[in-house]
Amino acid sequence: MNITVITTFHEPGMVQYGQRFIDSFQQRVDPRVKLKVYAENCKPIVARPEQVTVVDAKEALPDLNAFKERWKDVPKANGTCPWPARRPRDHHKAFKWDAVRFANKTYAVFEAAKDPNTDILVWMDADTYVHSPITYGQFRAMCPATVWLSFLGRNKKWPECGFYHLTLRTPGSDAFLKEFQRVYDEAEQGIFLMEEWHDSYVFWEVLKKIRTQFPQIKDFSGHLINGEGHPLINCELGQFFDHLKGVRKDEGKSRKKDLLKPRPEQYWNEI
């Protein structure tokens, strides 16, 4: 089965973390696993073009362009909480209502899922770092075809969408992708009816609806993480990947205290 990993970033992101992700991917991921980068106004360096493809996000994602054009001047779609009195404790957290900012991720997934040559589609945030070699078989085992979705769950909180996989052309993934895109394309009858509309919250609301009919999913970390946490590095994915979320981008790696228990891999022992 053909595995395609996708990600996206702009030029500042490329400089800070995106190029490092590409370099580590080319160095340590089995070349049978492909990487497709939706680049926003930047040109990352690719050493292995047979494995890594870079496309211009503006040219490749017309539906994203239409979404941004429609909502670019609407405050509620760009980080302004529409009901601050109802959310007195967190209405200032603009990311929760920044649909335009996070739409890059979702529309890249919608577009990549149309590729008939991809069987397993994996989203990975570009602030990921591949710290240890991973074979095709190991990658395949993390994304089994027996489930239509694997994701980073968190107890009492929306999932962390730094990594998830979809087994394409299955009833579950078809239904999920159809509804996921609908709530963006028909935003007034979709995401703006939700309590928040950053991509992870929208992902969770759609998944809760779809999984009742298609329960064949894999949660990497819901049993491990309560609240915020750092799910990727504490589940099986941590044996190969680090996720430099938040201020960790500046530090270049996650922190020892992010681990719920010690990991055996050399990378983690050197932190």
Note the gap between the termini. 35 Å
Figure out the total of helices: 10
For the record, the CATH architecture stands as Alpha-Beta Complex
User: How many whole angstroms does the radius of gyration measure?
Assistant: 18 Å
The biggest beta sheet reads: 7 strands, mixed
What does this structure look like?
- This protein is of the alpha/beta class and 271 residues long.
- It has a single domain (3-269), classed as Spore Coat Polysaccharide Biosynthesis Protein SpsA, Chain A, CATH 3.90.550.
- The chain is 34% helix and 19% strand.
- The protein is built from 10 helices and 9 strands.
- It has helices spanning 11-28, 57-60, 62-71, 99-112, 136-142, 171-185, 199-210, 231-234, 248-251, 266-269, and strands at residues 3-10, 33-40, 52-56, 120-124, 128-130, 149-154, 157-167, 217-219, 241-243.
- The chain has a 7-stranded mixed β-sheet, with helices on both faces. The protein has a two-stranded antiparallel sheet with strand order 5-9.
- Strand 6 and strand 7 form a beta hairpin.
- Helix 4 (99-112) runs antiparallel to helix 6 and helix 6 (171-185) packs across helix 7 (199-210).
- The protein starts with a strand and ends with a helix.
- The relative contact order is 0.14.
